[in-house]
Records
---
Amino acid sequence: MRLSRLLTAATFVTCVASMTNATADEAAKPQSFTRQSARDILAESRKIVSGHGIETTLKIPINGTEQWISVRGHDTRNPILLYLHGGPGAPDMPLAYTFQTPWEDYFTVVQWDQRGAGKTFAANDPAALASTMTVDQMTADAAEVVSYLRRTYHKQKIFLLGHSWGSVPGVRLAEAHPDWFYAYIGAGQIANMRESEAIGYRFALDEARKQNNQKAVHDLEAIAPYPPPDGKPIDFASIGTQRQWLQYYGGLAWGRTGFESFENAEKISPDYSDEDFAAIDKGSGFTMSHLLGPLTDADFTKTTHFDLPILLFLGRHDYSVSHDVAARWFKTLKAPAKKLVWFEDSAHLMMQEQPGRFLKHLVDDARPYAVKAGDAAPDDIVER
């Protein structure tokens, strides 16, 4: 008996020593940590494992094209929220992991790479798309995505969130099909883009003069008057200059001089490959070449009547799309219910700049419309 115990102990010590040596050998080897390693870790950490959950990324046929969506949520009994990204041509699918994961407890969230953007750009022939790159077509695509979601997931209504450029098709859909949506949520809402451009230009030039930034002053004065008078189109070079300095002074992300930190986060997105990421810039250039004019001419000042609840989420420091123009437009709106929420420490990217507050207002101000209709997973049970 004693001999058996001694042999067992000896074997155990030998095994431990062997394992220790092996571990030491492994530790001594150089470990390569790649961009893909980071993506894999993030994908695993946000994997949806709940019984009622959904986690899928797929191509769907939309008006003669193939377009990509991701659908994520911990309980498909929750309401669907369709996110219309900005740009145009700037998908938020690769950045969604930085802010969206908590939303998935309360909504089934759908990110969609629009015609000409990201994964969808890579999945289609640009030459075949060129003649279709219009606001009417983008709105028709959005309508088809909504119809697909309602049909596939058996939802009478969903939530529609339009951010920046996405608020253009967003407003048009909300006005045309109020019966499809519990509410329309406009974030960084476009109301009158030419007026917004003028305000952003003055903001950037004023800041440059205050800080005696002669380079910025020279660049901005060189494009005056901005925007061009009499409805003349804004060219790429001029809007690029305005955006460069507007961003530098925090008009895109408050307290930051540009978009680099968010762009770097895209590079390790669990939802995008290197090829997908490369398609962002190609798609953005392609899309803007067709939609810059319609974007800068967007004007909803005469669109004031809605037959569904309207929520506006505005960053107090937003000069990419003027918070002031949007707030003035909001005052003119007639709707069954409306609410304006200010994000005091944000500019244009409030869902990333203040993600906790953004989620709180989605849950407190939007979700109750679905809960009232019975379109929500049961609340957590609290025992006392």
Note: The longest helix spans residues 2-28.
---
Amino acid sequence: MTELQVESAGFTKNDLAKYPFLKETADYIKPLDLQIDDLVSMGTELVKRAEERVNQALIERRVTRNSKRIDIEIPSFPLALLIVIATENSFIKKRYALAEAKQSSIDLVLEQKEKILRIARDFDWKISLAKESADSPLDFSISFTDYLRNSAHLHDKKWKLTNSILSHGCVYLNKKDVVRLLKEEIRRRVEKRLNVKLPKVPEELGIIAERVKKLGSEVIGAVETDEIPKIVVQSAYPPCIMSLLETSKSNHHLSHIERFTLTSFLVNIGMTSENVNELFKTFSDYNEKLTRYQIEHIAGERGSATRYTPPQCSLLQTHGVCKNRDDLCRRIYHPLAYYKRKQKLALP
């Protein structure tokens, strides 16, 4: 496909459903002249899908696409944005923007280079297809300003400009790296759309927002950790954490929520990021750079400097993480509350 063909090729409805952040998606919906009340009243299926998007973002940190009902999928994005805005919760806003960006990056990796080029240009990138050469297998050239803007928060040494191929003000990259930079651009665009104030919140939208806020508090935990003793006492661990530790020692796979629960619990009771990283080294799928980054992010040592706490017991029960409940568990709503209570009671 030539550059001229790339410019003239429009996005399909399926593209707009997969990449709802595109300017063309907004143009597609604009003629409908939908107001907040219209979106909320368009039908239970649309409202259900919009809430599902937000819930999946909070729990799984991604938002899978439904290509079978594009008529529902496309308008569910702006309605999901309205739900998130109505929560007035900065954590939920950041989590949703990141989840949409993550899913888009997963989809983009599977796209042809020409589609990636068009999406990058939707962000006004100065980007071109690199000339094919046996000496250079790289796919794209982008302006160094676009490169610097989106690589600034990426800590791996590979993203330093000195480690890149730079020629005539352009950085040459492979497809995977361009998609990674696009992920940052997508996240910022979605976050920007979430940082507005709604003139009014319809009653039904407010009810949904309250449900989402409750789920958000369960995901991050609503426990103050100042009173947790600095000395780590393993005998005070709740049964669910002990079960996760036993599984990790057996070199078994832990799901995303299990890893998040274990990591966030350990860093909140005083274990260092380095010690938690040592624990995960026994895992068969261990990736040092990725694992270290995730641990430090959860510990508040990267990004927004927010230290995440484990999910509440109700959410752990929903996802099958709650194991071997004892009598104390039945009076506790959070793993950290269990840990503090057991230490206080000096139970064996």
Note: The longest helix spans residues 175-194.
---
Amino acid sequence: MAQKHIEFDITIIGAGVVGLSIAKTLAEQGKLSVLVIEKNESFGQETSSRNSEVIHSGIFNHIDSIKYQFCVKGEKLLYDFCDQNKVWVNQCGKMIVSGKHEQNNFENFVHTLEEKEFNFDILNSQQTQKLEPSILSDQSILINNSGIVDSHGLMNQLYRISSNHHTYIFGSTPVEITKENEQYHLTIQRKHQEIEHIKSRVIINAAGLQSYKIAHHIMGEALQIPTMQFYKGSYFSLSPQWTNKFNRLIYSLPSDNDSLGVHVGFDSTGKSKLGPDYEHVEDDAWDYSVNIQSKEKFYALAKNYIKNLDITDLHPDYAGVRPKLFYSSNQFSDFYIQEESENGYPNLINLIGIDSPGLTSCLSIGEYVYKFV
């Protein structure tokens, strides 16, 4: 007896903030039938909800990178969407601090901002103190268009819009995907081991931490990019006395690796936090616990620019894992967003290595992917 296949125009694998944004764009732009598959019990439970919730401006991304292009466009789209859909957002700005020993790095970073034609101010220590009384810095850079967003509130609204038009199945994993003629055949295992068979004209692989594995499963050696690497980032919250002590995001100068460094952030309640650090972890060997031994490392970094910080003010909070793809540079990762016709897989769209600024870029990525379907 032949297997019965349910047919969709488009199948999205992954319901993180990027998958949700693609689904939202599809819901608004057309009447195509769309299935969204998510392995977890709800949307946005991995990288999308385990990050700093920062709306980036692109200052830390290379001007020629894909990250930079999507970030710059996505920032405005995100502010507009949050305003229209009543998602909490705070365009608080960002301050990059430095010490006297970092003068060369400071000047080099200022040059990159000038190259990108960003508006910014350079502050001396007294001007820094006036704006941020709890911060120590010999020279600072003030960027006004960075901010913080409630990522959960954002994803709730994306899901609300898209789920009115699309089919979502949670607790489900594609265990087999094959290309046959003009369609892709998917075998999906549900949480109670039930098996379903799906036919889909288009596959959009937005599976986050699993995106490379899924792409390689479908394409094999035709996928000619390196495997992803994974970096765990932990966060420490600060004691209640630090609530509402910071008016802006506080960052150090960019480092020589792909990390943005340990910075000061806060949420809608004013609760302050430090993070993330940058710890390489093996594929599938990660966990989301915060290593209490990291406390001294966090404190050693943060005490240089937070006045009167005590190590007892730091408390383990949460951790996340960032998927990074070093395919165009050995030093800095970039997004891989590709419709794979030229590699023999038409209507397969892979989104691999979507880490920071993926949250900022999500709506611009959604609009871009729509062009391929």
Note: The chain has two domains: 6-49+153-227+330-370, 94-144+229-324.
